[in-house]
Amino acid sequence: MFLFNRNFQRLPGNYLFSTIAGKVKEFKEKNPDKNVISLGIGDVTQPLTPTIIEALHKAVDEMGNAETFRGYAPDGGYDFLRKAIVEKDYAPKGITFDEDEIFVSDGAKSDSANIQELFGSNTKIAVTDPVYPVYIDSNALAGRAGVFDAIEEKWTDVIYMPCTEDNCFAPQLPGETPDVIYLCFPNNPTGSTIPKSELQEWVDYANTMGSIIIYDAAYEAYISSENVAHSIYECEGAKTCAIEMRSFSKNAGFTGTRLGFTVVPKELEFGHMKLKDLWARRQGTKFNGAPYIIQRAGEAVYSEQGQKEVKGLVSYYMENAKLIREALESLGYTVYGGVDAPYIWLKTPDELSSWEFFDRLLEGANVVGTPGSGFGPSGEGYFRLTAFGTHENTKEAIERIKKL
Ligand code: PLP
After folding, report:
1. Which of 365, 380, 392, 398 has the highest CB neighbour number within 10 Å of its CB?
2. Mind listing the pLDDT tens digit for each residue in 250-263?
3. CB of 89 closer than 6 angstroms to any ligand 1 atom
4. 242 in a domain, yes or no?
5. What is the distance in A from the centroid of ligand 1 to the CA of 388?
6. pLDDT class of 14 with cuts at 50, 70, 90
7. What global pTM score does this model have?
């Protein structure tokens, strides 16, 4: 008789977005005539841009020709894409990497879930609260985080770094020393960022304590403030303490196309072990490379025209963010985020809980958002709206909220 992996029982119920989808489905079944607008899940709505489509078509044609056909991709990515990343994402900021420090993947979700495999079973992790659930659930599935305390709604044996109004949603250096620290800026779900000087403090702390920072920069394309770093490697000493993850999902609209990468600098060592070699070994064992066609599309993102188009997409969504922010503020809501990030983090009115506000918005305005409490206990009393809708839907949702 087989035994199942008991760690699954330690996960809290459903993944947050499955619960939301279930509630929306139930509402639609009861109200088939209602048009529900989703500003909930962080999925994009705008199509891939012409330069990307052209690169995809070209690569598809290559696959149909014996001379240019490609089979398995290299585990770490094709040289053409790794080179483009090194030259276009990092070199202009004076950051140098070899191509073999870049690991191309199918996105930042899998990388941020898989990266914990590099660390020992007793590794102590620190996460922000609220947090992108993948960091903590993946550690739990690996048997690492203690147990889920359903009353406190917290994992035991995990260091929580509360991000609240009092600290402007910026985590404070923890009292207890973690081995691995997960940071995400611009942040999902709060939409907050920290100045480069504050990120430097984290880097200094990690280097002093011998901790590793897992830096999720999936939303870096949304940064407009001058004093916010696009990469953790803009901070001095980050190469000896940080792994960075990036995604093509939110800047170029690859949520359905799937592409991302992780940077593991060669300076990251434990004794004589280089983490870069461990990650290469891990990927070689469990990953057979991102598809050639998609990597060519990724390369096109870095072309001059590709960059213009991608900037257009980001501006499109940030216009939505501005509309939502301003409308909610004019209605008297307390609103955060939406400046360097496509997420608006609002305080629920009338002391409603996050899920009560979810119900009020769904039933009263037929608009779907994400309850803040789903991201951690400090998210209770908050609610996340995304700017990833179409302009039309965003405006319509705002009108409905105004009427509500
Ligand atoms: N990291 C964060 C913080 C996210 O919010 C998301 C998606 O919502 C991801 C990673 C996933 O990115 P990808 O589509 O590249 O898997």
Report:
1. 398
2. 999 999 999 999 99
3. no
4. yes
5. 13
6. low
7. 0.96
